[in-house]
C-alpha cells in the first residue's frame, strides 16, 4: 500500500489531498502547527513546523514507525501575505511567508530527499502557486517571489537527483477557492474578482481528487502535474458566455 505524507494538511488544499489520498486507498500522514478540529481519524497527524528540520524528521520517523516507509511526500504547507504593497507589509509577515513557503520547502526537502535516498526510493512533490510561471500580481510580492523560487529549487533538486531512485516533481493546483484566494478584498473588489474566479477557479473537492490520482500515478523526475493548463484556461474564457458557474453559492 502506498504511504503518503502531506505537510500543511489541516485545511484547504492540504486537507483535500489528505482525504483524497485516503479515498484512493493510500495510508496517509499529515502535519500542521496545531491539530485540526475534524481531521480524518484514519490518517496519522503529527504536530510539526516545516521550517524546523527536527520537526520534519519527527514527521518522517513517526510515519515510518506506523506504516514502515514513505513513498510520496507532498510539500504543501504554505502562507500568503496580506494583499498590500511591499512597503506596507509588516516585516514579520514577510519573514513568515518566506520562511514557510521557501525556507520550509528547502529544509523539508533536504531532510526528505536524504531519507528517501537512504531507503532506496521515493517521490517528493513541491506545490506551485501564483508566481511560479512568472505571472506578476500587485500586492502579492512576497508570496509570488517564494513560489517563483520554489519552482527553480524543484528543478534544481531534479538535476541533483539524476541517476538516483528518487524523483521530485511540481504540483500545480491552479486557482482554488480557499481563504487564501479571497482574503483582503474589499466587498466591491471581491465582486469583480469573482467574475474571474468563476471562470478559472475550482473548489477544493474538485481539484484535489484529480491531483491525488496523478501523484499516485507518478511522473518523470522534474515533471509537473498541472490542473489549470493554459489550454484549459483559454477554453474556459472562450466558453464563459455560455457556461454558468457559481463557486461561491451553496451548491
From TrEMBL:
GO terms for molecular function: chlorophyll(ide) b reductase activity. Pfam families: adh_short. One of its GO terms (biological process) is chlorophyll catabolic process. Belongs to the short-chain dehydrogenases/reductases (SDR) family. PANTHER family: CHLOROPHYLL(IDE) B REDUCTASE NYC1, CHLOROPLASTIC-RELATED (PTHR24314:SF21), NON-SPECIFIC LIPID TRANSFER PROTEIN-RELATED (PTHR24314). This is Putative short-chain dehydrogenase. It comes from Actinoplanes missouriensis (strain ATCC 14538 / DSM 43046 / CBS 188.64 / JCM 3121 / NBRC 102363 / NCIMB 12654 / NRRL B-3342 / UNCC 431). The lineage of its organism: Bacteria, Bacillati, Actinomycetota, Actinomycetes, Micromonosporales.
Amino acid at each position: 500500500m502506498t504511504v503518503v505524507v502531506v505537510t500543511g494538511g489541516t485545511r484547504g488544499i492540504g486537507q483535500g489531498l489528505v482525504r483524497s489520498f485516503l479515498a484512493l486507498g493510500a495510508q496517509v500522514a499529515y502535519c500542521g502547527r496545531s491539530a485540526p478540529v475534524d481531521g480524518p481519524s484514519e490518517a496519522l497527524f503529527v504536530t510539526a513546523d516545516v521550517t524546523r528540520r527536527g520537526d520534519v524528521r519527527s514527521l518522517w520517523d513517526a510515519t515510518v514507525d506506523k506504516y514502515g516507509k514513505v513513498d510520496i511526500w507532498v510539500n504543501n504547507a504554505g502562507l500568503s501575505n496580506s494583499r498590500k504593497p511591499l512597503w506596507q507589509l509588516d516585516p514579520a509577515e514577510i519573514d513568515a511567508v518566506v520562511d514557510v513557503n521557501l525556507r520550509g520547502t528547502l529544509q523539508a526537502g533536504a531532510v526528505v530527499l536524504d531519507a528517501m535516498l537512504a531507503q532506496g526510493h521515493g517521490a517528493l512533490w513541491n506545490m506551485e502557486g501564483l508566481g511560479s510561471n512568472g505571472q506578476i500580481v500587485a500586492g502579492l510580492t512576497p508570496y509570488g517571489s517564494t513560489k517563483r523560487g520554489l519552482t527553480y529549487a524543484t528543478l534544481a533538486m531534479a538535476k541533483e537527483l539524476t541517476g538516483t531512485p528518487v524523483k521530485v516533481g511540481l504540483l500545480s493546483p491552479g486557482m482554488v477557492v480557499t481563504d487564501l484566494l479571497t482574503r483582503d478584498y474589499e466587498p466591491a473588489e471581491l465582486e469583480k474578482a469573482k467574475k474571474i474566479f468563476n471562470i478559472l477557479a475550482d473548489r477544493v473537492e474538485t481539484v484535489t481528487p484529480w491531483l491525488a490520482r496523478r501523484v499516485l500515478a507518478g511522473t518523470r523526475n522534474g515533471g509537473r502535474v498541472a490542473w489549470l493548463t493554459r489550454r484549459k484556461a483559454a477554453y474556459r474564457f472562450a466558453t464563459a458566455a455560455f457556461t454558468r458557474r457559481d463557486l461561491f453559492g451553496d451548491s
